């Protein structure tokens, strides 16, 4: 047994001075040198320290080596092999898994009599193993540092042993000075060193003690070596709750102690570092008091309340360490080691306020970053739009998400309940600009879509009518139409969109509505000008003039429309569509809310919106200059998206009272998240084309993918609720579903059905058959309470109540669920789900036309399906654009291992 190196300690302590902790003379052996963490860290440590690692071990990899900037490090199966090969070392570094640390340290001690120090990087070593490691080390006279640490470093000798103190560039963080650092946190060890330089303080030795339950080289051991180190004039200690390592210590020199973790005393289990769990008398508050007593101060140091003594100061914010140290050392007559380097004031290299007006204290101006970052930031600043990383997008989405508790889906952060209250144009723009469009953008969107709805003389209408005549469902009719709106049909408008973005990219334009913006400096060559002008084949197309007239009539503003008009000549409809789309997209684009790809493809989506709505209208209603008898001028200059959608469903313009429920219906139907069948159809089509080469992705085909993935079950089943209500109100004499004074006894009506349903249910049970489910009643998530509610239905009901709106069909559903429970047909009061609200709202819209004979039940079914499609085309656009920006080729495939064959 070796003799004790110092009489100041009741146990063996070989490190007499901090100057001995990490020296250029130390030779190092690294256990598990080829492990993931060591591969990243050891080469930097080895190079910084002048090549101090002599070899490493990795069982089964003998003969391999670890490449470093200053030469390769040989690897052996075990420590004995390395020693037998002629290598010698005095320090071991352990990167082994927790279960292997004890045996690894035992091997180091057993086979190497020259071993003096072991640095354990591994965290979460069991207390049992830590005690055995301690016993073995004490018996053989070996100092242990760690575990769960980032090693030790010395700024004077330019040495780093184990871990990543100083990061990837230790020469920048480890600046020679007179301050020693001892820290429970490895990351903060480096951070504190960097912070100290802002007050002109450099470092001597840095010790990352770790914070497992068992700390081998603790604060008392550090204090002993600190007192004996002539280089170190002061020290900084960073301490966390847990343990009594810092209690009653005489450091002998000035110290600034930073104690963190007051919040941890409120926890019942450990978080972060394993040992940082509040115990009895070792909370953060307790440790603060230990240091205050040691330093003779009566409070925490803050810049506003600088409490210090010659012995030291206590802080709870690492940002206060440098100034606290300067204050302490001033009382000791000592000055910093060098001139301050930088400051801890926030110095943003980039700023993006997203268009929000911030108070001066928050509106920080960017500073020029040091090389080479300034050049890289300049390149990023020149980019237009967001840059989005690609990833596997199977069953994932960056556009939509469903809350599993509420069953409410959000699209770009806006719930469908919120969207149900927004104007319809705002919903149609949200998927593509990630923001709710303002009045100006909504007006422009109305014009753009209106210009695409009338399909007279277009092969699209021929295809749609042929599909309709074939007896196809509404989604199939739409799919036939969008199939024709391929890349060549939008080639010119997309080229115009790209040209506009390219021209204005570096112009400083922030708002596409800024008609006062001076674009006279933009250089437009003959080819670009020709791109925007209408050709001879468009001479008979009246839409460009009608679109510009509508913009003026609505008072809409667009710098891009003004620019196109300034070129002279007659602009094409493609150019105007691109100018409108760029106006809508420009704000989100420069704020980097959307990508350039999204902005450039926006005209394609707008054209598809118009085509899909137009394809819903039978061909005979499309006439030159009019649609369903509505003139072009009226539609372009006054109509909204809600008006157009209502026209497609009913053949007439809605009143304000009719427009609002339609808006709510479509908003509620926008999305059910990326897991819905319709969303998967859209995403799969993008994945099949290959989003990694986005120019090849056919957006119209992706929209067709959504359409072909809807059907009578997913999409058309909205009619089931209406069919149920039609049956219940068949002989009721109802004339106006929105009149609360209807005179119908809903309670009696519901009770009668509930009794009949209970009888049918009992009979079905006796026969071993199933009773058909009631549409709009019950939900698998919202159940089990005495009275159950679907929060989506409650949201809409609350909104209607505040407005004083009434819907008899919704009121009937509320009576029905009560009656079903009262008669014993259901075990509790089932919820009225959101499908019932949709059926009630839609049937109320169409009731008068149905009762007048203008609509048949077949028409009602088609209307229910079409409304669903209008909502989901918005959600599909969001998924298509998201997958186009984020996805990888064919990433929606299911792996073969997850597929099965069914006999």
TrEMBL record:
It holds the Pfam family Succ_CoA_lig. Residues 176-282 form the Succinyl-CoA synthetase-like flavodoxin domain. This is CoA-binding protein. Transmembrane segments: none annotated. Residues 50-123 form the CoA-binding domain. Gene3D superfamilies: NAD(P)-binding Rossmann-like Domain, Succinyl-CoA synthetase domains. InterPro entries: Citrate_synthase_sf, CoA-bd, NAD(P)-bd_dom_sf, Succ_CoA_lig_flav_dom, Succinyl-CoA_synth-like. SUPFAM superfamilies: Citrate synthase (SSF48256), NAD(P)-binding Rossmann-fold domains (SSF51735), Succinyl-CoA synthetase domains (SSF52210).
């Amino acid at each position: 047994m070796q003799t004790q190196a110092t009489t100041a300690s009741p146990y063996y302590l070989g490190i007499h001075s901090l100057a001995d902790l990490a020296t250029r003379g130390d030779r190092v052996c690294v256990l598990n040198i080829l492990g993931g963490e060591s591969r990243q860290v050891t080469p930097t440590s080895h190079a910084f320290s002048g090549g101090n690692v002599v070899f490493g071990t990795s069982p089964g990899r003998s003969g391999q080596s670890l490449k470093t900037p200053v030469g390769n490090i040989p690897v052996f199966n075990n420590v004995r092999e390395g020693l037998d090969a002629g290598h010698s070392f005095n320090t071991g570094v352990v990167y082994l898994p927790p279960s292997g640390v004890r045996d690894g340290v035992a091997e180091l001690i057993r086979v190497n009599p020259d071993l003096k120090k072991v640095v354990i990087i591994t965290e979460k070593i069991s207390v049992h193993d830590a005690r055995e490691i301690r016993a073995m080390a004490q018996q053989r006279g070996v100092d242990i540092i760690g575990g769960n640490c980032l090693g030790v470093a010395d700024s004077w000798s330019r040495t780093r042993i184990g871990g990543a103190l100083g990061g990837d560039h230790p020469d920048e963080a480890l600046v020679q000075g007179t301050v020693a650092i001892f820290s429970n946190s490895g990351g903060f060890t480096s951070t504190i060193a960097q912070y100290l330089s802002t007050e002109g303080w450099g470092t001597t030795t840095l010790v990352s003690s770790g914070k497992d339950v068992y700390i081998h080289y603790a604060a008392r051991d550090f204090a002993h070596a600190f007192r004996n180190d002539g280089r170190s004039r002061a020290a900084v200690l960073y301490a966390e709750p847990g343990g009594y390592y810092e209690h009653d210590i005489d450091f002998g020199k000035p110290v600034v102690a930073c104690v963190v973790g007051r919040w941890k005393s409120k926890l019942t289990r450990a978080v972060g570092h394993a040992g940082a769990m509040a115990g009895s008398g070792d909370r953060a508050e307790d440790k603060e008091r230990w240091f205050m007593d040691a330093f003779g101060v009566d409070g925490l140091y803050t810049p506003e309340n600088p409490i210090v003594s010659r012995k030291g100061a206590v802080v709870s914010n690492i940002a206060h360490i440098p100034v606290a140290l300067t204050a302490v050392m001033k009382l000791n007559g000592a000055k910093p080691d060098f001139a301050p380097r930088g400051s801890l004031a926030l110095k943003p290299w980039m700023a993006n306020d997203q268009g929000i007006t911030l108070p001066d204290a928050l509106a920080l101006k960017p500073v020029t970053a040091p090389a080479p970052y300034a050049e890289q930031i300049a390149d990023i600043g020149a980019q237009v739009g967001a840059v989005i990383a690609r990833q596997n997008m199977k069953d994932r989405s960056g556009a939509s998400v469903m809350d599993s508790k509420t069953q409410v889906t959000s699209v770009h952060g806006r719930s469908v309940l919120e969207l149900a209250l927004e104007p319809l144009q705002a919903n149609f723009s949200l998927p593509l600009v990630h923001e709710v469009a303002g009045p100006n953008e909504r007006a422009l969107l109305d014009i753009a879509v209106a210009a695409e709805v009338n399909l007279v003389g277009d092969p699209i209408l021929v295809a749609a009518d042929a599909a309709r005549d074939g007896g196809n469902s509404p989604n199939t009719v739409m799919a036939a139409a969008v199939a024709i709106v391929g890349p060549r049909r939008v080639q010119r408008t997309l080229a115009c969109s790209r040209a506009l973005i390219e021209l204005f990219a570096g112009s400083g334009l922030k708002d596409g509505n800024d008609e006062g913006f001076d674009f006279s400096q933009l250089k437009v060559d003959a080819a670009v000008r020709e791109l925007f002008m209408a050709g001879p084949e468009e001479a008979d197309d009246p839409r460009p003039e009608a679109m510009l007239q509508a913009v003026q009539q609505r008072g809409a503003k667009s710098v891009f429309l003004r620019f196109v008009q300034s070129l002279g000549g007659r602009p094409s409809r493609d150019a105007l569509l691109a100018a409108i789309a760029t106006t809508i997209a420009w704000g989100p684009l420069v704020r980097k809310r959307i990508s350039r790809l999204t902005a450039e493809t926006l005209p394609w989506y707008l054209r598809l919106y118009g085509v899909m709505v137009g394809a819903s209208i039978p061909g005979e209603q499309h006439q030159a200059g009019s649609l369903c008898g509505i003139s072009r001028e009226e539609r372009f200059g006054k109509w909204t998206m809600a008006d157009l959608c209502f026209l497609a469903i009913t053949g007439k313009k809605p009143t304000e009272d009719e427009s609002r429920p339609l808006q709510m219906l479509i908003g509620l139907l926008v999305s059910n998240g990326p897991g819905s069948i319709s969303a998967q159809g859209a995403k799969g089509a993008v994945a099949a084309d290959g989003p990694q080469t986005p120019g090849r992705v056919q957006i119209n085909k992706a929209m067709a993918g959504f359409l072909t993935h809807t059907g009578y079950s997913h999409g058309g089943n909205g009619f089931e609720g209406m069919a149920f209500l039609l049956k219940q109100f068949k002989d009721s004499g109802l004339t106006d579903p929105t009149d609360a004074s209807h005179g119908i006894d809903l309670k009696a009506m519901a009770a009668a059905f509930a009794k009949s349903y209970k009888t049918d249910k009992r009979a079905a049970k006796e026969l071993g058959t199933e009773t058909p489910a009631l549409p709009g009643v019950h939900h698998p998530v919202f159940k089990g309470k005495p009275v159950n509610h679907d929060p989506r239905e409650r949201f809409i009901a609350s909104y209607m109540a505040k407005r004083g709106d009434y819907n008899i069909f919704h009121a009937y559903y509320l009576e029905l669920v009560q009656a079903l429970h009262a008669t014993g047909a259901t075990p509790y009061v089932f919820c009225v789900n959101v499908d019932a609200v949709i059926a009630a709202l839609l049937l109320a819209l169409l009731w008068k036309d149905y009762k007048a004979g203008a609509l048949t039940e077949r028409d009602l079914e088609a209307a229910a399906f079409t409304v669903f499609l209008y909502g989901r085309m918005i959600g599909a656009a969001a998924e298509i654009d998201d997958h186009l920006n984020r996805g990888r080729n064919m990433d929606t495939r299911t792996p073969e291992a997850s597929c099965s064959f069914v006999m």
